[in-house]
């Protein structure tokens, strides 16, 4: 054996006396619990490692579990809700749509390229382990405004990582959202959502049941990358600990493609041999095997670590169990069917090895070099992880917030509009998404750049609309209402594309739950989201939690990314945001009020976000969404676009860009009103011959603004001024801003 | 008439080609593993896009040593149509079936967007359904699409009218705006843009159908070639 690599592990007594468990992420209380209540003896080094991984927030949700119970998860079409790798919703014809989102914030902060690649890889494994073929991915990104070359490099590397992985494995990256705010300077957010399609009679579950059945390790060899990454993901960053690179994994999309095809082959063609299948994600081998064992219930598990394919010599049991090497899966295979399954992997050149068995009893036992190195109750790792009910307190900045809405100062409306179109959060994200393969699998009907991406379901007259959304600024001013708005905006995107919401997934990106004011934000946001989910009948079917996004004690804005999927029943209902032709009538549907606190124009003019968030009414929101759905289904609309950041004027401008058209509009709103971000509004265009039918359907909620033109002139008359510029100039500002700032 | 769609480890557009032929062109089509050593029974061979062997070493460089490649070379020398798209084009240059090579895009980034091409030659068996000079819109999706050949090769390509498609707005730095070329015999086409992604209006363009329809027309008019 390699002497250099051989390590001397601390003894159980040393771990206790020197409190070595702390550096692995366990608290004194948790260590006592393991020692006194679970094992009734001192845990050894390997066992402490197992618990530190499994009891991390990332695996156990110990701080968020009580909050997550507040989520609305019911719905008549929900086949599988939260708990498995990903949730499933029935979309008819024996088809299920499977989706989930995952954050890779911490790894991406230390190593942007690999952090992003492995984020994509991990979420895809969650999807195909359910028996679904991934059909689309989306990315929700939050960065600080790039200032230095290092900032630009960082953003480019994140994007390059997503591009490298998704493009290679052949799953289209069809959408997402990117916003910029210095609140994310030290904690960028990299959230990836993936959507899969499956036949409902082929559901797989990550469970291992039946004594004697084999545990099969599949995929890449295990190396020393990402050791105990789950605990790492649950730490806060600070300026004293900048270098934690060893906790980051390296992605190999080619291997993942082989593993994915082989796993889908086993699920689809060898169902009788397969008991369960699970991704080796956070906390690697221990997490996948313990969860598999715990979910099955009633049995134990024994693994022989000498059989685990290894990339490096002399790896310890701790390292083997906690490594987060990528592109690995764990299967439970029915006794007697091992050869049949191993052959499927061999045919595709993928490692597959029997490393253990389901056993009698309830113990989770690990053998290494002929010795028993861990022997713990299987449920103690997964199901019985501690749960903390954290304290909640209203944050200081919300206690004395000014109820008055900010009043924008606009001397020159056209100049203000130009400035708005150049804001990075508003500007076109083309320079990002054109590096993603958005079309592979040839089902992408609406590519990035409209409200929601639309992917058709081949051989059926239906399609899925998919979007990601959240505005952390709204949540910063009011986590509850902001949480409602995040879901509502996602739903508006879905509705604008011609779909009705099916359900959501989420990534709850928040600060430190041990601090009451930061926990308050998480708790309130979840309640707000849940209220909106219930209102829109869009249950939460899966999700992920990323806490401790704080740096030197300052948290990010509360940012619960909402990933929503909707169903379009009939390909001809697919609607995009672009105005289609000159002469069409432009309307705004929904009332415009003063919605300025937390808005893009407040940030643009003051550099800050402050005051009480503007009002929001879920019932009115739903009413407006229903009107738009009816108008689309009655084929009255040429285009529909949700009004969000940058307000009505921005939404109008965005609607003109796709086909490079102009507008001639007039309204009794003030110039400032055109930048209001009050919710529950859409900009739509209607062909002239449908005017009467449209106005009858929508009634007093629609306000006609004027006409689409084709004369390269963007002209909007407000009550106290006007916006007047060449359409191509507006387009150039909007299209060039981000590319220019990233150069 | 039966198309073969070759499948290498890491190919990812094989089903797109398969579906285009089956559902839109409505001809017989079968996936053929890289492990096979024969293409007997097929009238045309299609090499899909993707990242064979992860593009490791160099795109197409490892796939070129697959068991199916000698059969493909024989298939090509018998005069049957061979079409390589994107990674398929890269494999064809690596396998010596087409001259030149594909380098990294000048931007050094992967680019996915619709590009306008001009049909430079409509008397190839792959482009007879187009008009010479016709502008067509096809998507590109590649990181290594920058076609390179030396001046002598370029002169020869021009002299033998081997340049079938050109970009009107060169997205990747290709020599002479080349998007697709045929071999001197005219039966092997390599192109970076994806005609199989542009066969239905609902996906944005049907301009790619002509490539496959041209192949079908050629095979039907020429009759079956036995081994």
UniProtKB/TrEMBL annotation, chain A:
Gene3D superfamilies in the cross-refs: PurM-like C-terminal domain, PurM-like, N-terminal domain
One Pfam family of this chain: FGAR-AT_linker
Primary location recorded for the protein, binned into one broad class: cytoplasm
Keywords annotated in UniProt: ATP-binding, Cytoplasm, Ligase, Magnesium, Metal-binding, Nucleotide-binding, Purine biosynthesis
Residues holding Mg(2+) 1: 102, 544
UniProt domain PurM-like C-terminal: residue ranges: 211-366, 581-717
Limits of the PurM-like N-terminal domain: 83-198, 449-567
This protein's record includes keyword Acyltransferase: no
Catalytic center residues: 58, 104 (proton acceptor)
Record's keyword annotation contains DNA-binding: no
Compartments in which it is found: Cytoplasm
UniProt xrefs under SUPFAM superfamilies: FGAM synthase PurL, linker domain, PurM C-terminal domain-like, PurM N-terminal domain-like
UniProt pathway: Purine metabolism; IMP biosynthesis via de novo pathway; 5-amino-1-(5-phospho-D-ribosyl)imidazole from N(2)-formyl-N(1)-(5-phospho-D-ribosyl)glycinamide: step 1/2
Domain Phosphoribosylformylglycinamidine synthase linker: 15-62
Class of this enzyme: ligase
Family that this chain belongs to: Belongs to the FGAMS family.
PANTHER family: PHOSPHORIBOSYLFORMYLGLYCINAMIDINE SYNTHASE SUBUNIT PURL
Subunit and interaction comment: Monomer. Part of the FGAM synthase complex composed of 1 PurL, 1 PurQ and 2 PurS subunits.
Protein name: Phosphoribosylformylglycinamidine synthase subunit PurL
Natural source organism: Lentilactobacillus fungorum
From TrEMBL, chain B:
CDD domains hit by this protein: GATase1_FGAR_AT (cd01740)
Compartments where found: Cytoplasm
Pfam families: GATase_5
Cross-referenced SMART domains: GATase_5 (SM01211)
EC number(s) from the headed UniProt entry: 6.3.5.3, 3.5.1.2
Function, as annotated: Part of the phosphoribosylformylglycinamidine synthase complex involved in the purines biosynthetic pathway. Catalyzes the ATP-dependent conversion of formylglycinamide ribonucleotide (FGAR) and glutamine to yield formylglycinamidine ribonucleotide (FGAM) and glutamate. The FGAM synthase complex is composed of three subunits. PurQ produces an ammonia molecule by converting glutamine to glutamate. PurL transfers the ammonia molecule to FGAR to form FGAM in an ATP-dependent manner.
Subunit structure: Part of the FGAM synthase complex composed of 1 PurL, 1 PurQ and 2 PurS subunits.
Protein name as catalogued: Phosphoribosylformylglycinamidine synthase subunit PurQ
Source species of the chain: Lentilactobacillus fungorum
